[in-house]
User: What shape does this take?
Amino acid sequence: MKTDTKPAIKVAILRFPGTNCEFDTQYAFGKLGHKTELVWHKEESLPADTDLVVVPGGFSYGDYLRSGSIARFSPIMKAVVAYAEKGGKVLGICNGFQILTEAGLLPGALKRNNNLHFISRYQHLKVVNNDNVFLNECREGEVLNIPIAHADGNYYIDDEGLEKLEKNGQILLRYSDEEGNRVVVNGSVTSIAGICNKRKNVFGLMPHPERAMESILGSEDGIKMLQGFAQ
Amino acid sequence: MKAIVNVYLKEGVLDPQGKAAHHALESMNFKGIEDVRIGKQIVIKLDTDNKEEAKKEVKEMCETLLANTVIEDYTIEIV
Assistant: This one.
């Protein structure tokens, strides 16, 4: 691991009622040598020295109405939107991805999985684009093995929106087999697993890199994903 | 006064729950089903007598929270 060659950053990790991946996320960034701070959703501002905001996974507000739909109105989200508008980096993982699409920080929406199952397992992902601060440590075309755990990961965007994503290099990750061939996991449009905004400072993905930090637990591919943010 | 809001996935957006119910109904030998869409109904009690105002207010609620207009359509009925 080359974690010690990169400068430490300050990571603000949001907590909503029902968030449950905040400590895994904290562990993951801590392992990479970064400072972390948990931020309760009722706060109205982010820590002043924040370099990255992470909206972690879980079931904010019990997924009531739609996943992420209520969390986006929490006081802290105003600060997150303002932070992103100023060019600040924001990463949404799983429920965090859902919250960021609901908040309009990322295009598209996440629907119920096509097979209606909650899918929880390791899943191969192909890196589609690494020309961004998130995946710059990964090779384009590289296949990663990262856990997924979601019921609403079926990414939807209309044809026009999809074309824009393709054109701007906003599609970051697709579900694949071990060889990198596209596979259908949850019905998401062209097997999309992760995207970013046009400006490439807001990122969202359904898989959980923070759960892939230890080879003894199955995979440490999450390290090179999360490491990208330190530069 | 009450507002009855129905929220459905847009035409053209695959509705996995509707599809599952459709298959289940066919497996029970119900014939002639063309399509099944599953949505949700939200009933809001309002403290007003002004129907127009109520509708305007509820439309705002739909646009901001009750529906995700990227994937969903909604109808409003004031009763």
Q: What stands out?
A: Chain A has one domain: 3-229. The domain at 3-229 of chain A is CATH 3.40.50.880 (Rossmann fold). Chain A is about 20% helix and 25% strand.
